[in-house]
Design brief:
4 helices; alpha/beta; Transcription Regulator spoIIAA
Length: about 110
């Protein structure tokens, strides 16, 4: 199964909505899609994971590497709308200590806009 990345903007913030699964078979494809969708002027990226069904350690690595691209002054990276299963993986893996996680897209946009 593959991962699909849909793009939108919410109050000027670039939002990538991930659909499907991220595992070792498609993590490179996901990373490429995220890199291709972010423009040079984009300072903030919000990943909406409401339709992400599964994430492996390879997917977690993609989240971490992508977050590092938004660590500069005036830059932000966040996750929102995680399912309970994905949320548990993020929490247990310690990623919620280094990546901001919000219950809703509206909450994330309000916090990082």
């Amino acid at each position: 199964m593959s991962v699909e990345v849909g793009w939108s903007r919410d109050s000027g913030i670039l939002v990538a909505s991930l659909v499907g699964r991220i595992d070792s078979s498609n993590s490179g494809e996901c990373a490429d899609a995220l890199r291709a969708g972010v423009g040079n002027d984009d300072q903030t990226l919000l990943l909406n994971l409401s339709r992400l069904d599964y994430i492996s350690s390879a997917g977690l690595r993609i989240l971490l590497l992508t977050s590092r691209e938004f660590e500069g002054p005036g830059q932000s990276f966040a996750l929102c709308e995680l399912s309970s299963g994905i949320s548990e993986v993020i929490r247990v893996g310690g990623f919620s200590d280094i990546i901001s996680v919000y219950d809703s897209q509206a909450d994330a946009v309000a916090a990082i806009a």
